[in-house]
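TA notes, week 10

Several of you asked for a full example with nothing omitted. So below is the full record: structure tokens for the whole chain, then the designed sequence directly under it. When grading your own attempts, check the secondary structure regions first.
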């Protein structure tokens, strides 16, 4: 059972430790601090028995919500937590009256792509060379979920 709450600046050491384990090109502490400072970003952490094991960052405005980051601790992946976090994000985007939830994902991130497709997201576009990669750049796929 996941307990969700708003991310605080005090959570950043734990969040950054997960971010650095989970991503080849992790966000910096400064990016998370900026997200916390922007009033229209919703930064959430998820705990299992008091241990921070996942987080999500969503922005919204003008009827659109964007899922900017969703991440589960690598040791706790593959147990349904990512799906649970995504469902909570979708519900909160609906409550904010967003009509669409957008996100970008690396072309190579087949696990995340499968999660989004099974949650009802549609692939609506591709951004060329969007992400840094081990060698050169990598395209992003853009996914959208209608919420109305
Ligand atoms: C993507 C991520 C959030 C998924 O979280 P998770 O807890 O591992 O996912 P779940 O256990 O809830 O699995 C949900 C679905 O995702 C898909 N999936 C997740 N990991 C997968 C993998 N390694 N291979 C194939 N499918 C996978 C499956 O469809 C799975 O459903 P199923 O178990 O019914 O087959 C997690 O892997 C993660 O944090 N990855 C690193 C950060 C990242 O890439 N975030 C997304 C950026 S766009």
């Amino acid at each position: 059972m996941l307990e969700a709450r708003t991310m605080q600046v005090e959570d950043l050491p734990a969040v950054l430790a997960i971010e650095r384990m989970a991503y080849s090109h992790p966000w910096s502490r400064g990016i998370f601090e900026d997200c916390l400072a922007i009033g229209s970003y919703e930064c959430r952490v998820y705990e299992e028995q008091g241990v921070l094991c996942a987080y999500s960052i969503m922005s919204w405005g003008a009827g659109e919500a964007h899922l900017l980051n969703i991440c589960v601790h690598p040791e706790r992946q593959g147990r349904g937590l990512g799906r649970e976090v995504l469902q909570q994000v979708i519900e909160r985007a609906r409550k904010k009256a967003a009509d669409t939830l957008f996100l970008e994902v690396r072309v190579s991130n087949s696990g995340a792509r499968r999660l989004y497709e099974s949650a009802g997201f549609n692939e609506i576009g591709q951004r060329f060379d969007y992400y840094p990669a081990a060698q050169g750049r990598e395209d992003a796929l853009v996914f959208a979920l209608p919420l109305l």
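The CA atoms of residues 108 and 127 lie 13 Å apart. Use that as a sanity check on your answer.
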